[in-house]
Amino acid sequence: REEPFLTVSVPVKHKKSILESLNSFVEGESLEGDNAFLCEKCDQKVATLKRVCFKKLPKTLIVVLRRFEFDFDAMAKVKVNDFCEFPHVLDMEHYTQEYLVKYEMEKAQDKDSERFQKKFRSHPKEYYQYKLRGIVIHVGTSESGHYYSLIKDREGSGEDEEDAKWVEFNDHLVKSFNPDDIPTEAFGGEEKLSDLPATSSSSALRVKSRNAYVLFYERDERDWEIVDDSDDDCEIVDDEERKASSEESKVDTNGKTTKELEKREPAYHVEDLMKEVAEDNKKYWSNRNIFSREYFGFISELLQQSLKADCKLLELRSANPKWKDQPSLFRFTVMFYLTTLVRAGEREQFLPTFIKGIREKIVKDTNSANWIVENFSKPTLLREFFLECPLRDLRRLNAGLLRKALEMNYQSEKLTIEAYVGKFDADKGKGSGNVPTFILYVNALIVNLEASKAHPRNLGQFFQLFSDVAEIGTAAKHYLLKRKIIGQFLNYFINESRGGRSIIDTGYLDLMEETPCYLGYPARKLERRTSTIEDMIAKKREAMLGDTNPDYSYLWQTCYILLRYCQLHDGGISSSSGDKNTVNPLISKSADWQLGSSELKPLLTDERVLCRILTSQHLRTSRNSVGKILQILSYRNRGFTELTLKAFQAVIRGCDFDDIKNCYGPMTYLFTVPDSL
Fold it and tell me: Which residue has the higher pLDDT, 397 or 199?
């Protein structure tokens, strides 16, 4: 059968040269006896010679040396450093299909040899000649190493091949290379230790870790005509006659002959290549300078100076309205933090300084806080930093920055926000007057709910933004409730969840208590208790689940925060056995929002939804939030209490021991409801 190929992979183990490797292809393997080939035409096994050869040769031949293999004795990947040489000029004729068929026919003195001449047209000798143009060398082991290249200069590869220059490309090092050193540099094998004393008579050797991995051979530029060997009636044509006839007959659509077409300019000019290289070099040096430690240090110092300079700017703004919208150094440093520093590999050294400076500025200047919230009111920016960002540390730090800015923005626009939310029509989805920046930010969060489904691993910090909004003030809670966030979150979980948890990262805990630069987040009190075997197993299991499952803990925490400010009716909290005038002690005393049961219908009526919620809470904070929600809804509500107990029973019967433990927290909250049920 025929198979197209891009590279030719040849063995090097126990092969002195790539010619031996190529010979092993065409020598083939005899299939006889039980291993005989099953012929589909005659439906019986026949003795067959299985081998590989080339039907059509490419212009550029890429040869990959099999320097890496798996050692089944050591059960590890190893590198093969055996000596294997390769020629500067490679003749591929003996490895082609036409040569092998011709050779076998002549060997057997086949009478159909004339028919073979018609079947396979002979090519000139130059068709099979390949010249070495480049070498990729690997230095190291199977687990680690370094690559560099030896390339033959095309400008010096004319008629005098011996005078052609070779160049070594080794990262930023580019220098001339002596082709006489190719055997030492690329053939592999062993070499003498150079650091032995001169008086030592020992001829100690060591295996070379550097050797050729990829070879590039190229044929002289010419459009070699490959004849379709399926035509048995093709005639043998003299090479000169074929050349003349092809020049006369081959004409393009513009009336130009092949000879004229060969004189055309190449499709890719040297000038274009030089421009492309120059542009790549420009990008390289630009990135190198932008992401350098020196530049980070300069911007860090600039941030500190901007805090002092902006203090004077505040006075100018208060005295002259024209200064109100003037850009500041602070905005520049914030943009540098969001666009450059967060993408740097060595950001840990500078993050504390930038975070502390940004927080100080947000606390002092309301305009700066409003500017940050205004920028994050764009759905694309939220999506980039909280859904598409793969680094959880940065998502948490950016969430902290945004929370502090949001607090300052809410306080500055509180009256405007309350007026807008009070007149907001939930059915039309519109309010009256100008939309406050805070509302635009919340709308951007809601818009990204659909986009968040494509990033299940990053849901923790995304839903944390909703939780921050819910905790910030009464008007914020009312707006979320008017947008029916509880119902949206329930539908989101029912349709998308697969169960989830997340491990809280403590990489930046030192930024909370000692240095007040965690952007508004209160210091988290870590629980100290004696570690037991059960705790260690649980932590290990939580870590495994955290790598595979989405984190919905802040989703449930947001629902709990909002639910505490709601008075349920229409079959919500109260039941036929309860008194609707009885105040639920589990909700806030300032609860003033009337929440209909229709928004909670999937949770209040469907046992399967409850089972799914109970079995998916692998994080303690998530289990606690779910337990508190069930506790609020089951107060003096016999129907929902019985439904929840049935769900617990179904979970216990159908889950293993580890999953049953996820129900302990919610069950504890359910059994401690302060009612008579």
Answer: 397
Q: Which two tokens stand for residue 152?
A: 């033959």
**Torsion of Cα atoms, 538 then 544 then 546 then 547, to 10°:** 170
- Per DSSP, the three-state class of 61 is strand
Specify the DSSP element, H or E, that contains 130: strand 129-140
- Render the burial of 427-449: b for 16+ CB within 10 Å, e for the rest: eeeebeeebbbbbebbbbbeebb
Q: How far is CA 263 from the centre of its chain?
A: 46
Distance set, CA 84 to CA 140, 141, 190, 405, 581 (Å) = 17, 17, 11, 65, 92
DSSP β-bridge partners for residue 500: 617
The residue whose two tokens read 């592999």 is 188
> What gap in Å lies between CA 329 and CA 358, rounded to an integer?
11
Beta strands in 433-502 (DSSP E): none
Cα 634 from Cα 656, distance rounded (Å): 26
- Dist CA 190 CA 179 (whole Å): 19
SS3 for 646? Answer: helix
- Per-residue tokens: 105: 């026919």
Query: What pLDDT does residue 295 have?
Result: 86
pLDDT at 71: 85
User: pLDDT tens for residues 252-299?
Assistant: 444 444 444 444 455 557 788 888 889 999 988 888 888 888 888 888
Cβ(132)–Cβ(89) below 8 Å: yes
**Rounded distance, CA 355 to CA 378, Å?**
22
Q: Give the separation between CA 434 and CA 424, rounded to whole angstroms.
A: 12
Instruction: Concatenate the DSSP letters of all residues of 483-538 into one string.
Output: TTHHHHHHHHHHHH---B--PPP-TTGGGTTTSS-STTPPPPPPP-----HHHHHH
* DSSP annotation string for 186-230: HS-SEEE-TTS-TT-----EEE-SEEEEEEEEEPPS--PPPP-TT
* This model's pTM is above 0.90: no
Under a CB-based contact definition with an 8 Å cutoff, are residues 643 and 611 in contact? Answer: no
- Looking from the CA of 327 toward its CB, the CA atoms found within 13 Å total 6
- List CB contacts of 623: < 8 A, sequence separation 6 or more: 617, 662, 664, 665, 666
489-511 burial, b at 16+ Cβ within 10 Å, e below that, comes to bbebbeeebebbbbbbeeebeeb
